């Protein structure tokens, strides 16, 4: 279990800079804002790094994002700055943040008490050989750390006083060992309650998360500026796989930069790892806890997606007027010239500024294109017919 500090901190005002022009590489890689007032840069990167590792830490956990980790960090230690503490460039917090002795005593004038937990770590983490104390920026009890602690920065030591290690551990603890979707408010609240058995704590952290969720994130290369929530996560996931070879029928479970077989004859391993057009967007949104079906035609027919129809009707050329109605993260569907099957036969994810990321065909890799410039304007009147757009909502 976790134990909160007796005195909780109000959320800091949020001042964000996340423009396409200044999006940093680290922000884009980890789907975080470029800056958030009140969160030191090294701490913000740790939140993003840990959230991005959720698929490896807890494969059955979806919907993990920087804002969830930050919600915990705000409530537990004001992002590692409580009582004048700070994180160095390696993420080590000094002076160490150590909570009250868990000795069963009264901790405030309301008569609230803490649980009595005798020492479990010999004072190694909390400097108290008699009673346990919550430690580090994420306030883990030493016994809990022994189970859930992580070596997030890869230095060979799982240290609760290091923000990267602590953020990784928080991701693991929130996700647990079962199937969890943190985009579901009820499941998110359940996860927060597991972290700290206090209804007031849950609501405080949940409110922090909602505030952070509203902040647009920077994405790789500055693509998708202004996106937030599931769309931002999906864009970040997709853009990190630019350069991975297209594989027709590929499941896109773990896109690799090379394939075993020839491009026209991929192996079973290639089909497991790499993507075709529809599995790319499917898995990108799966990273955000959103379920899309497997093929272009079934995705296009999903009634839980917002339909945006072509200005000039299905099968017409994509126009600038059509693009004006789109947002980063929207899924653009086409009937590609000569492609087999019923339309739509191709899908890409819109990034804004007339750009789209897609897995085009077996001759090309996952790429980001300018819709008007690519192949002489193929997607805007040069052969591909625009079938419509679908938007993830909610």
UniProtKB/TrEMBL annotation:
What SUPFAM superfamilies does the record tag this protein with?
Cysteine proteinases (SSF54001), Lysozyme-like (SSF53955)
GO biological process per UniProt: proteolysis
Decide whether keyword Hydrolase is in the record: yes
InterPro entries the record matches: Lysozyme-like_dom_sf, NLP_P60_dom, Papain-like_cys_pep_sf, PG_Endopeptidase_C40
NlpC/P60 domain location is 228-393
The secretion signal range is 1-23
* Example of a GO MF term: cysteine-type peptidase activity
Keywords of the record, alphabetical order, are: Hydrolase, Plasmid, Protease, Signal, Thiol protease
Q: Does the keyword Coiled coil apply?
A: no
> What top-level branch of life does the organism fall under?
Bacteria
Please give the family membership noted in the entry.
Belongs to the peptidase C40 family.
Name this protein carries in UniProt: C40 family peptidase
């Amino acid at each position: 279990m976790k134990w909160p500090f007796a005195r909780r901190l109000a959320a800091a005002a949020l001042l964000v800079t996340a423009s396409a022009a200044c999006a940093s590489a680290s922000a884009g890689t980890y789907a975080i804002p470029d800056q958030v007032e009140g969160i030191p840069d090294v701490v913000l990167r740790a939140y993003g790094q840990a959230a991005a590792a959720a698929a490896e830490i807890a494969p059955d956990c979806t919907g993990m994002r920087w804002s969830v980790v930050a919600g915990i960090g705000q409530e537990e230690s004001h992002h590692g700055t409580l009582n004048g503490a700070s994180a160095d460039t390696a993420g080590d917090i000094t002076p160490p943040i150590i909570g009250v002795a868990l000795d069963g005593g009264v901790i405030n004038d309301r008569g609230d008490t803490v649980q009595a937990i005798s020492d479990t770590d010999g004072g190694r983490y909390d400097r108290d050989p008699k009673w346990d104390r919550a430690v580090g920026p994420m306030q883990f009890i030493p016994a809990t750390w022994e189970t859930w602690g992580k070596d997030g920065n890869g230095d060979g030591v799982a240290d609760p006083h290091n923000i990267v290690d602590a953020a990784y551990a928080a991701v693991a603890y929130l996700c647990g060992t079962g199937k969890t979707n943190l985009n579901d408010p009820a499941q998110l609240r359940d996860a927060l309650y597991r972290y700290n058995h206090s209804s007031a704590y849950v609501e405080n952290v949940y409110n922090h998360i909602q505030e952070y969720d509203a902040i647009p994130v920077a994405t790789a290369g500055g693509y998708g500026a202004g996106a937030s929530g599931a769309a931002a996560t999906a864009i970040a996931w997709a853009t990190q796989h630019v350069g991975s070879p297209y594989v027709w029928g590929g499941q896109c479970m773990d896109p690799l930069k090379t394939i075993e077989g020839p491009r026209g004859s991929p192996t079973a391993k290639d089909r497991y790892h790499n993507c075709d057009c529809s599995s790319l967007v499917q898995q990108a949104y799966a990273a955000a806890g959103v379920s899309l079906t497997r093929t272009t035609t079934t995705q296009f027919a999903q009634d839980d997606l917002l339909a945006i129809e072509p200005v000039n009707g299905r099968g017409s050329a994509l126009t600038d007027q059509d693009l004006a109605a789109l947002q980063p993260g929207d899924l653009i569907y086409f009937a590609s010239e000569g492609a087999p099957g019923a339309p739509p036969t191709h899908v890409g994810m819109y990034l804004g500024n007339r750009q789209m990321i897609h897995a085009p065909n077996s001759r090309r890799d996952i790429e980001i294109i300018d819709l008007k410039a690519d192949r002489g304007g193929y997607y805007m009147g040069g052969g591909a017919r625009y079938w419509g757009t679908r938007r993830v909502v909610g």
